Amino acid sequence: MKYNIAVIKGDGIGPSVVEQAMLVLDRVGEIYGHEFEYHEVLAGGCSIDEYGKPLTQETLDVCKDSDAVLLGAVGGPKWDSQPSDNRPERALLGLRKGLGLFANLRPAMIFDELADACPLKQELVEGGIDLVIVRELIGGIYFGERGSRETPMGPAAYDIEQYSEGEVRRIAKIAFDMAMKRRKKVTSVDKANVLDSSRLWRRVVEEVAQDYPEVELNHFYVDNAAMQIVRNPKQFDVILTSNLFGDILSDEASQVTGSIGMLPSASLGEGSFGMYEPIHGSAPDIAGQDKANPMATILSAAMMLRYTFGLGKEADAIENAVKHVLKDGVRTGDIAKPGEKISGTVETGRLIAEAVK
Ligand code: IPM
Ligand code: MG
User: Fold this and answer.
1) Fewest Cβ atoms closer than 10 Å to its Cβ: which of 89, 133, 163, 320?
2) pLDDT of residue 122
3) What is the DSSP letter of 215?
4) Which of 89, 135, 300 to mutate to test the pocket of ligand 1 (most atoms within 8 A of CB)?
């Protein structure tokens, strides 16, 4: 089969980690007889430099015409002085919205080989952390009405958090479907003790839960959820939450696994189309130095094979290759212990590609 992939390398370490993921995909293609055709387009800071804006219609169109998007990372200090609606991050929001990607899946798990990278006490994580955050991605305060107005305390700015029943229902279904394939537990996170939008969220989630009698549902307020993630992370299977809360909790959860350089993500819409990217950022401080960990992007490519192309066996092959090199002691700087030999981005990518079986 032939698959069309729009590739957005982006800024900072984006290009070097995406190149390694492409290398691994090509290896999978050779072994399993698939052809991956890449269509490279710009978004983020590099697009501002080239076209004056972070996301062009052409980039969006190329993505729409593809089967999936593979993205590195966008942003960097070079573009800090851009007005807020022309910052590199706007490209991400524009892609998510423009492609209708309302569901963001962010798995956080501990790789056995990296167990001692976890900053929590051993007894809290024994047996493994394996959770997935299902984050609503194109609604809420990120996309609500915004503006400024005068107040007695001086000029003010506002951003509105709003969720409709339909928006909550479709993301809740994704979370429950996911739970059915896992340990059958959903924790919905909101702030229903304060916010009306959260009370609507909770009511709709409970309605959706009626269709999934096998799934256990509980609700946490977001402040408690943030605490529970470090207090007892093993209690979580699927965490269902809004755009803003999901942004915050997914960074927290990634740190608990000890390895933000390891975690992939998928952003999905109604069909099988999806956008796949590591959850880490563009890390401008180490860009161009062959220091970045390409594993999160390589694992994102595995998610692409699994979720968009339905190639489960091939996805397993990539995940196993990553585990294989970890077992062999391959460590980029972010996951190496003091004194361990450090492997560069390119070498790590090559070793993973060679380990694909
Ligand atoms: C993320 C990022 C983005 C977000 C930024 C870069 C716009 O933090 O994907 O988590 O807030 O969604
Ligand atoms: Mg974030």
Assistant:
1) 320
2) 86
3) S
4) 89
| Contact of 95 with 55, CB cutoff 8 Å | yes
> C-alpha distances in angstroms, 269 versus 32, 156, 308?
27, 35, 11
In this predicted structure, the answer to whether residue 36 has a pLDDT above a threshold of 90 is yes
Protein residue with least CA distance to atom 7, ligand 1: 89
CA–centroid distance, 125 to ligand 1, in Å, is: 27
Please name each of the domains of the chain with its CATH number: 1-113+263-357 (3.40.718.10), 119-256 (3.40.718.10)
- Nearest CA residue ID for atom 2, ligand 1: 247
Query: Atom 6 of ligand 1 has which residue's CA nearest to it?
Result: 89
Contacts of residue 159, defined as CB under 8 A and 6 or more positions apart, other chains included, come to 141, 144, 145, 146
Q: Which residues surround ligand 2, an ion (CB under 5 A)?
A: 247
Rg of the chain over Cα atoms, rounded to whole angstroms, equals 20
CA distances from 334 to 169, 267, 277, 327, 337 (A): 38, 25, 18, 16, 9
Per-residue confidence (pLDDT) for residue 115, from 0 to 100: 83
Atom of ligand 1 nearest to the CA of 247: 10
Query: What pLDDT sits at residue 322?
Result: 97
Strands 103-109 and 130-136: antiparallel
Q: Which residues are catalytic?
A: 142, 191, 223, 247, 251
Residue 126, classified by CB atoms within 10 Å of its CB into exposed (0-12), middle (13-18) or buried (19+), is exposed
Q: Is residue 82 classed exposed, middle or buried when 0-12, 13-18 and 19+ CB atoms within 10 A define those classes?
A: middle
Sequence length of the chain is: 357
75 Cα nearest atom in ligand 1: 6
Query: Does the pLDDT of residue 176 top 90, yes or no?
Result: yes
pTM exceeding the 0.85 threshold for the entire prediction: yes
d(CA 65, CA 118): 40
* pLDDT over 90 (residue 118): no
- Report CA(248)–ligand 2 centroid distance (Å): 6
